[in-house]
Specification:
heterodimer, A: 325 residues, mainly alpha, 14 helices, B: 243 residues, alpha/beta, Rossmann fold, four-stranded antiparallel β-sheet, globular
């Protein structure tokens, strides 16, 4: 029994390493900048969704306001760089820490809310934050921040000639988010989170600190999402409130996990690999004036999945749940 | 030696309803004590007060020489109070062994040890063959057993069983009785709320009968079942006189 378990964990790790290695080789063959762009976004959303999954999938606290942490990461990095000349690498860490702190400060009152009320609160808070940033002159208000790009620089994390550095960074980010999840899955926190999700009262009777479990999940989740936001700010080199803190980001983080399998190790990555290229392609080929075709595709996919595979696409490959029968 | 568990003058009011009034009971180390009484007697309320689901309106609860009246449930678990739920609360999306690991993590911080402990408890409770099954796929009697296994994995000094034998077939109930005896033989004190008198009475060392929120009678099971007050509480006055 124990052997089965550890061999499955090892197998997951090996598969991940192989997939990462293959992904790392892809740019050698794919030179098209447009396709590279899609790959970067796919990896970024895989990382974001994986991070969202920690709080909402494992711990069961559905957040529809994670755009807040994405925006905080982007803004912290951009502002520190523009106003104080702090290199984005430090901005990334700072943004992560600020987001984690804010996630806990918000969690303090919000984690007392049950079920849907928590999800609603996260939407409202993210919208309030969006309004605040839109009216904050020092941070560029509604116009946003234009990060000046002056040639390639590792220190400033800016690259003009090639997208490859961004690609590899996004790959590392996705791997880190996956690895953190993998590692936490077989830890006291991972077990506490799943227990809290399934039945908080029973969890409490078994010595689980329910409140701090949620706080821990929120902090880890927000930190990783903010790092993703920092990366995005550097990648697009222009941010405004709507483009980094809009509600659509909250959805785009949740949907890959929902599609792939919420609360599973592989779900977010699998969902992102399908959903993000699909969105980008529909947007460029059938989008045009009819904005929203991508949203129709999303909606249909989610409906299909919830009808046919309520536990997400991973349940097609699932060995754990399948073998259990 | 002091009692393992003691409630001193415990009151619980819900608005105008008095669920427990001036309840003082004690449970000694190594005992199996049955908490019985007709519906609405206040058994479940008292049980929840002892488990730490809510604090009593008045009075105090002592566990292992310590005042735990205001201590939250999770901390009581760390001190050695384990419980099951009347309406089973399994972690449905987790496997049986993972359910038990959650409990085992209270005393084992290293995952490998928690996992080993969980398998050990599954062996003890006769669930070893179902370790890899999702909790949602268990039959009701197995879910009851899982409740006990999870609580045992926390290595409690006192195990609170909330109607674990109710609603089982006679065979299942007998296996349940055997398990409770085994638990006691492992040195764990048991306080059980139960409805089915004929199953509980041969099992417990002492019975406490609650009625209308008060302790009505307590003593040896054989004496308790013959007590006219108990008969009248369960069946009405007419039966008490004819007894």
């Amino acid at each position: 029994m124990d052997k089965d378990f550890s061999s499955r964990r090892r197998r997951d790790l090996i598969i991940a390493a192989v997939l990462a290695a293959i992904a790392a080789l892809v740019p050698l063959f794919v030179k098209d900048v447009y396709v590279q762009n899609i790959m970067i976004l796919t990896l970024m959303y895989a990382a974001l969704s994986q991070s969202w999954n920690i709080l909402s999938g494992y711990c069961g606290q559905i957040s529809l306001g994670h755009a807040l942490y994405f925006g905080l990461g982007a803004y912290t990095t951009a502002l520190l760089f523009m106003k104080f000349g702090v290199p984005p690498w430090f901005g990334m860490i700072a943004g992560g820490l600020i987001s984690a702190a804010i996630a806990m400060a918000l969690g303090y009152p919000c984690f007392r809310l049950g079920g849907h009320y928590f999800a609603i609160a996260t939407i409202v808070i993210a919208e309030i934050a969006l309004l605040l940033i839109q009216n904050w002159d020092w941070a560029g208000a509604a116009l946003g921040i234009d990060i000046p790009v002056r040639g390639d620089s590792w220190l400033k994390f800016q690259f003009t000639r090639s997208k490859l550095p961004y690609f590899y960074f996004a790959l590392v980010l996705a791997c880190v988010a996956w690895f953190v999840t993998w590692w936490l899955e077989d830890s006291k926190w991972g077990f506490w989170w799943r227990a809290v999700k399934d039945n908080p009262q029973a969890a409490e009777s078994l010595g689980v600190d329910v409140f701090n479990s949620k706080m821990g999940a929120a902090a880890v989740s927000a930190f990783l999402v903010a790092v993703g936001g920092s990366f995005y700010a550097q990648f697009v080199s222009y941010i405004d409130p709507e483009s980094v803190m809009g509600f659509q980001f909250s959805l785009l983080m949740a949907l890959p996990a929902v599609l792939g399998g919420i609360g599973t190790l592989w779900g977010p990555a699998l969902g992102a690999v399908i959903l993000i290229p699909l969105t980008e392609l529909t947007r460029s080929y059938i989008g045009g004036s009819g904005r929203g075709v991508d949203l129709i595709v999303y909606g249909s996919l989610i409906i299909l999945i919830s009808l046919a595979l309520p536990r997400g696409l991973v349940s097609l490959f699932s060995s754990r749940k399948g073998a259990a029968r | 030696m002091t009692a393992l568990l003691e409630t001193r003058g415990v009151w619980q009011r819900f608005g105008g309803l008095v669920a427990n009034s001036d309840v003082s009971i004690s449970v000694g180390r190594g005992e199996i004590v049955g908490l019985i009484g007709p519906n609405g007697a206040g058994k479940s309320t008292l049980f929840n007060l002892i488990a730490g689901v809510l604090p009593p309106t008045q009075g105090s609860i002592w566990f292992d020489g310590e005042d735990v009246t205001r201590m939250p449930a999770a901390e009581r678990c760390q001190r050695g109070v384990g419980r099951t739920f009347q309406v089973v609360k399994s972690f449905e999306t987790m496997t049986v062994v993972d359910n038990v690991i959650v409990g085992a993590l209270v005393r084992n911080t290293v995952m490998r040890e928690a996992r080993r402990k969980a398998h050990e408890v599954l062996e003890f409770t006769g669930l070893a063959a179902r370790a890899g099954v999702l909790a949602s796929d268990l039959v009701p009697a197995e879910k009851r057993r899982l409740e006990v296994a999870r609580a045992l994995a926390t290595e409690p000094k006192l195990l609170l069983l909330d109607e674990v034998l109710t609603g089982l077939t006679p065979t299942e109930a007998q296996t349940g009785v055997a398990l409770v005896r085994k638990v006691r033989d492992a040195g764990i004190t048991v306080l059980m709320v139960e409805h089915v008198m004929e199953i509980v009475m041969p099992l417990v060392d002492r019975a406490i009968v609650l009625d209308l929120g008060k302790v009505l009678v307590e003593g040896k099971p054989a004496d308790v079942v013959r007590d006219p007050k108990v008969i009248s509480a369960y069946l009405g006055d007419r039966h008490a006189q004819s007894a």
